[in-house]
Automatic annotation (TrEMBL):
GO BP, sorted A to Z: intronic box C/D snoRNA processing; rRNA processing; tRNA processing
One term of GO molecular function: ribonuclease MRP activity
Organism, scientific name: Cyphellophora attinorum
Name by which UniProt lists this protein: Uncharacterized protein
A Pfam family hit: RNase_P_pop3
Superkingdom to which the source organism belongs: Eukaryota
Gene Ontology cellular component list: cytosol; nucleolar ribonuclease P complex; ribonuclease MRP complex
Length: 231
């Protein structure tokens, strides 16, 4: 085989069309944030009132102050919001499998695309599409958010980051948000999940690309010659 300075690189791909990452108009994003922030603020106040105070050095452990009425959050509000990649991933997997334990299925996913790696972003699209393919539930809406919106969501929750936030179905305080997002954001398109023919076999796709070969040879270090008259 002739050495051309290139080598083949192989990658597998599904044989179906992938869902594409949606776009969101800044006006719609701002309106959704306006409906979301009051709920997140209640949860943030609840976290502050229930968090343990650090004793520090030579500091007595004082009892926590009585929670204010604003921090008294009902359990259904806490259960309506899921924060974090792993927590939302587990719930979405349960919905995709049709587990009966998911009494409050996720209806909306707010995600900062730049805050998660590319493989996780691609897998998240397929997972949301799979969880939305069930005929007994409404399709899940994926709302991409900017870095500024993520910062505002994290500040409302009292957390440093909030790259992925899931909003569950069936809560009266998040019902206006759910209705608005469903009216303005289209669901992910994955017809092969909804209209698939399980009796038809589709082979896995293998993509081949040529990439440059990196040379491991080191260039010899030239030793400076001594000038005439120097020892």
């Amino acid at each position: 085989m002739k050495n051309t300075g290139m080598r083949p690189q192989y990658a597998t791909n599904i044989a179906y069309q992938k869902p594409t990452w949606p776009s969101c108009d800044p006006t719609i994003e701002a309106a959704a944030l306006t409906l979301l922030e009051p709920v997140l603020h209640q949860i943030g106040e609840h976290r502050k009132s229930t968090s343990k105070r650090s004793r520090g050095r030579n500091r007595p452990n004082k009892p926590a102050k009585d929670a204010s009425p604003a921090a008294d959050v009902e359990s259904d509000v806490l259960n309506a919001v899921t924060v974090g990649l792993q927590s939302n991933w587990r719930k979405l997997e349960g919905q995709a499998r049709g587990e009966a334990t998911e009494d409050n299925p996720i209806a909306i996913v707010f995600c900062s695309r730049d805050a998660i790696p590319d493989p996780a972003a691609d897998a998240l699209l397929l997972l949301i599409a799979a969880a939305s393919a069930r005929p007994d539930t409404a399709p899940i809406r994926l709302v991409p958010i900017s870095a500024d919106t993520e910062s505002k969501i994290a500040a409302s929750l009292g957390m440093p980051r909030a790259a992925l936030v899931g909003i569950s179905e069936g809560n009266s305080r998040t019902a206006p948000l759910t209705q608005y997002v469903r009216e303005t954001i289209a669901p992910l398109e994955a017809p092969w999940l909804r209209d698939r023919d399980l009796s038809m076999y589709v082979a896995l796709q293998v993509e081949t690309t040529l990439v440059p070969v990196k040379s491991n040879k080191r260039e010899p270090v030239s030793t400076p010659k001594a000038k005439s008259g120097q020892v």
